[in-house]
Structure formats: C-alpha cells, structure tokens
Amino acid sequence: MKKIALLAGMLSLFFVVSTFGASNYKAELKIASATSMEHTYNVGAQYFAKLVEEQTGGRIKFKLYPDGQLGKGERELLEALQQGSIDIYVGSTGPLGGFSQSMQVLDIPFLFRDYAHVDKVLDGPIGASLIADLDKVQMKGLAFWENGFRNLTNNKKVIKTPADAKGMKIRTMENPVHIQAWKAAGVNPTPMAWGEVFGALQQGVIDGQENPVAVILQQKVYEVQKYLSLTQHVYSPAMLIMSTKRWVQIPKEDQEIILKAAKEAAIYQRNLGRQNEEQMLTELASKGMVITRDVDKVAWVAAMKPAFDAFSVQFGKDKIDAILNTK
Ligand code: EAX
After folding, report:
1. Phi-psi group of 186: left, alpha or beta (phi > 0 → left; psi -120 to 50 → alpha; rest → beta)
2. Residue whose CA lies nearest to ligand 1 atom number 1
3. What is the pLDDT of residues 133-165, one digit of tens each?
4. How far apart are CA 113 and CA 262, in angstroms?
5. How far is the CA of 11 from the centre of ligand 1 (A)?
6. Which domain holds residue 191?
7. Is residue 78 part of a domain?
C-alpha cells in the first residue's frame, strides 16, 4: 500500500514539475505603456500575460499600467524601465534610439516596403542584433511588436503633398531621425512626449501629429484632428522589453516561457492593427475625420530623401542596404 502511495506521490510531483517546471519563482510584474487599454499594445499585453500565467501555473502574474500612469511619455517609461521601477515596457521603439543608437536605423522614412518586409527584417538577424544591443543598456528586449505605418493628421486642410504641409507645426516623437526627416520635408517638427500631445492639439499649440491608424483611433486623436493623410511615411516598430534588473532574477526555465510567450503574442498583437485597419479607418470617418488616401507618395519620398541620404552615411550604407535587400 505504502509503495503505491509513494509512487502516486512521485508521479504527481513529476506531473507538476514537467508541466510547470521545477521553478517556484513567484512574482507580479508591472507592464507599463503610454496608450489606453483598448490600444493594441495592451490587448497584446493581456494575451501575453495570459500565456505566461497559464504556463507557470499562476506563479508569474502581471499588472498593467496603461495611459502613461507611470510616465507621461515613452521616453520616461524607458528611463523607469532602465532603473527597474517598472518591470516591462510595451511601446514604440521611437525614443529607444536615445538609449541604444543602433535602433534608430529602423526609423528612417520609407525604409520598409510592406508588412512582409517588416516581419522578415525584425524577426531575422537584423532585428536580433538590434535587440541584443539593448543588453548593454539594462534592457532585455523580449520581442518586436508593432505600432504600425505612421500617417499625418492636421487641423488646417487636406494634405496630399509636402507643399501642402509646408511650415506646419507637426508633433513628432523624441526621435532625431523623424525630426530630421520632417525638417527635410519643409515641416516644422516639434518633439513632445505622447502624454502632452492631445492637449497641445486641443489648444492649437501644434497643427498636427503623425501616428498609425490604431493610435489615432484608440487614443481619440480624431477628437482634436480633422484631416488624416495616409502618408505611411515611416514604419514604427514597438517592443516588449523587460528591465534587466528583473530579468536576471527570473529562473532560466521561466525566462524561456516568457520569451516564447512574447514571440507568440507578437504575432497576435501585430495582426490586431493590420487586420482591423480598414475597419478603423471607417470608424475614423464616422467620427468626422476627412481621410485622404491619394497622397503623392513619390513627392513625400523625394522630400524626405535628403534625410534618407544623411542616414545612409550615419548608419552605414551597408546596414541600410541589408534592410532594403531583405526579401
Ligand atoms: O507608441 O509617441 C508616439 O507617437 C507613439 O507612436 C505612441 O505613443 C504609441
């Protein structure tokens, strides 16, 4: 009888260990973002959290802090991540170049052809090397997620060409590559933390801003912007990043669960914006936005080309060609 009980005990221990691993690490990790719970970052983060909680038997849980609760913009959130006061950041890589300069190569206007090209680059050796560079600045990049192709909004008029936007005060992320590109196009770029943008637009301090469709809808930019031009002038990656201070505390097998979940959630999160873009545009039109699809892309590419050429020098033509030639 005793032998059967012993065998049953060993089998159930084996089941628990094989299912949830030998780790008994427990934690509740903070996930911080600058956007709302409805935005794809936090819908994706909830899916990521569910995967990890399930695979660790509830030992590792998460609490989400959306809407810039822990920092008014993404740069502040990344600074908090570096210090370890937040465990995980989910947001655009826009300000990330200020911490790890190699990331800025992704911010070059008109660098990416389409989503297939984006996935090939970010999920391949180029993306892996940019993520590895983050280790040097106390950040553990878990996976590239997606902000999306950025589009221009403004409150003055329909914009099709750079000439239409000449001299307008357009808010940009705190990103030198974007600032230089907009200057080349003849616009007056105003870098600003995301948390200040809505108010600045409402007061007319700036004329416009640029962001992917999902941000324009889920951050209610349509309430303070009339015109949307589908310029798609730059692809804006996002990333799920853990503070290294937290990462090194986590046992290897739980680290593997987290990395696997981050990559699985990346596919889910990227598709949230891609598959719903047309529906989101219809919703923006129903909210009163005037949407211009027939933007003169050739003129925009030409206008931003001086910036593009300058970055070929700054980042190395080989690095940029490696991205352009990724098939
Ligand atoms: O990451 O600051 C920005 O314009 C970002 O695109 C936005 O916060 C979503």
Report:
1. left
2. 92
3. 999 999 999 999 999 999 999 999 999 999 999
4. 25
5. 50
6. 26-324
7. yes
